[in-house]
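Lecture 7 notes: from sequence to structure.

We start with a single chain of 213 residues. Read the sequence below before looking at the structure.
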Amino acid sequence: MVGGVVLCGGRSRRMGTDKAVLCLEGKILLEYVLDQVRLGIGQGRLVVVAAAGQPLPPLAGVEVIRDEEAYPGPLAGLWKAFSSWEGPEEWAMVTGCDAPGLVPGLLRYLGSVQQGEVVLPVVGGYEQPLVACYHIPKCLAKLRTMATGNGSLRSFTAKLDRHEVGEEEIRRWDVQLESFWNCHDPLDWEKWRSGKQNPGGVGALALGYPSQS
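Now the structure, written as tokens:
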């Protein structure tokens, strides 16, 4: 069984408002993303890591964990989720709240691979650490030494035994690579809502780091 972690406690500076509560198809964006993650992981534990004091509606079947400090960053969010993990799951799919295009079939596939310490998609030469599946116990020790600093997700995944999943394999489940579209700013958001995103184009990726392989 695979769990799920959705990080939603960022500043949303480029968006200008809290991305988690943007409205999409009658739901807030966080709820929309959680629905896709739930379809991808099945009955596994599902956790949201939110900012201290961040207003959120009731989320059925979801555990909400709060950051202790204001905007400590995604590594601290991962540490918060993994260090308090009480479920039987050893693997967790990790994503952000700003990914409306997540394809449950791809998440299900990534969760089934279970090799190395992280199953890490690479699209157009760019790593996608926020659509990746992490081995919780194996990641905890390395997170412990990094979560209180200013390290990036890239610096963290660089320390892991990575099983990279390439674009050709990803397209078996997500032909248009929509899982990797992130809505960071109002332009991204309007493009997504209007259906004018560039499906399958690397230029559409709003998140990513050059692969280290």
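Helices lie at 29-41, 74-83, 104-113, 136-146, 153-157, 167-170, 186-194. Keep this in mind for problem set 3.
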